[in-house]
Amino acid sequence: MSSYENTPPHDTEDGATRRDFLYLTAGGFAAIGAASFAWPFIDSMNPAADTLAMSTTEADLSKIEEGSAITVIWQGKPVFIRHRTADEIKAATDVDVSTLRDPETDGKRAQKPQWLVMIGICTHLGCIPLGQKKTEPKGEFGGWFCPCHGSEYDSAGRIRKGPAPKNLVVPKYTFLTDTTIRIG
Fold it and tell me: CA-to-CA distance for 73 and 52, rounded, in angstroms?
């Protein structure tokens, strides 16, 4: 019996068979098919364009007069931006931080002393404090007053009186120019 007669049909010199080729080809097509099926599902988990657009917002500070404030919306929340006067800055820096319920220095809360940027939601029950308009009550500390339960914040947004446990939250923000900031 010759060695030719003992070899299975369709064997090549390196031992690969036509069946191996078919297995590899079918496996490759199956992998491509699975990937093309799974990709739309995986891609649907990415945030939508409108959500990405809300992840940051820019604010023009050039139109805010000293002593005035504006409110911009970021991620559905009001963000208070106040152009503080020299007196407001002095009042915020003169506070003995050790006497505060939530001790934070003014320098830690404001990147540039004249600009204070905070999320305008009371840390007690989520109300919107008053004090953005010149005609609204600002409380005895010259900042913001939450009429729902009487929380009062100073000119640095720190809790000074009332039931609120924490200071108004300072969001992540960056100065793009001297008169433009990006929040988020």
Answer: 14
Set 10, 83, 124, 149: catalytic member? 149
Q: What digits encode the pLDDT tens for the residues 142-180?
A: 999 999 889 999 999 999 999 999 999 999 999 999 999
83 noted as active-site residue: no
- Say how far apart CA 30 and CA 178 lie, in whole Å: 56
The rounded distance, in Å, linking the Cα atoms of 110 and 158 is 12
Q: Residues 112-131: pLDDT tens digits?
A: 999 999 999 999 988 899 99
> pTM of this prediction?
0.70
Question: Do the beta carbons of residue 57 and residue 184 sit within 8 Å?
Answer: yes
Q: What are phi and psi of 116, to 5 degrees?
A: -115, 125
Question: What's the alpha-carbon Rg for the chain, to the nearest Å?
Answer: 32
Q: What is the pLDDT of residue 113?
A: 94
Cβ(139)–Cβ(149) below 8 Å: no
- From residue 7, how far is each of 10, 18, 22, 96, 135 by CA, in Å? 9, 14, 20, 93, 99
